[in-house]
Amino acid sequence: METASHKMLRNADLFRQHGGQEADYVEANVRVGMKWGSQQMANRLMERDGPVIQSGLFAGMAYHRTVAEGALAARLLGTYEAELHPHIERILATQPKHIVDIGCAEGIYAVGFARLAPFAKVFAFDIEEHAQHLARTLAEMNGVSDRVTVGGLVDHARLNAMTQENAFVFCDIEGGEQALLDPEAAPNLKRACLIVETHPTAAPNVTKTLHARFAPTHDVTLVNEVVKPPPKGHWLERAPTIDQFCATWEWRHRPTPWLVMEPR
Question: Are strands 167-171 and 148-151 parallel, antiparallel or unpaired?
Fold first, then answer.
């Protein structure tokens, strides 16, 4: 399903390919309007249903009224990165002992994993102190702070130590994944499950590079973003299309495909 907003962004890309300076102005203004609409939808969701995730893998999780970055509405709705949910469920079914969330932001995955996997110890990392505070608070709000450890920068040595046995690494660090996720520098990654959001805009060859690094030891699946409708039966199904899109839009400026990598 291509919405009017999608068409405007696609047209802006076409203008840019032909050297049109107007494209930057058009795209910037479209995105400002879309983000405003997304924030308004987040307010409506909280007014009607409270600050709680309403559907999907983390349904029922108490949530913040603000986020470290990105789209609050899609998080509250439960559609945020729903492409990953089947892969996450499959990996959690293996009962990993340690779960490492690198680039945890306000903690949606770290806390969500802790709620779904009471058998696991969760380590969450973010270089922003505000994000660390939000992640700790979210863990307390959901009663899992005893199993969620929040920290800052993680290096190869620490990553290797945390992935010694039956580990799951979830990584979203805006291009830094190419330097950090190196199975030669952190050999235990060769036995870990990984889900990595790659950022070709920040590191042009990152997706191919990581695929090549892990292909000898892992089954690698490329997952691309798709346009998501509201959850079945949700009141948003009766809302205007633009409201539906603003509620489910995840604020991505360009494609950021994921790699799901499971050891053989």
Answer: unpaired
| Predicted pLDDT of residue 16 | 55
pLDDT band for position 32 (cuts 50, 70, 90): confident
Q: Domain residues for 214?
A: 4-263
CATH (domain of 255): 3.40.50.150
Query: Predicted confidence band at 29 (pLDDT cuts at 50, 70, 90)?
Result: confident
User: With 90 as the cut, is the pLDDT of residue 235 above it?
Assistant: yes
Q: How many domains is the chain partitioned into structurally?
A: 1
Torsion of CA 116, 122, 127, 132, to 10 degrees: 70
Phi first, then psi: give them for residue 115, nearest 5 degrees.
Answer: -70, -40
pLDDT value at residue 253:
82
CB 217 within 8 Å of CB 186: no
Which of 20, 25, 23 lies closest to 12 in space, CA to CA?
Answer: 23
pTM of the model: 0.88
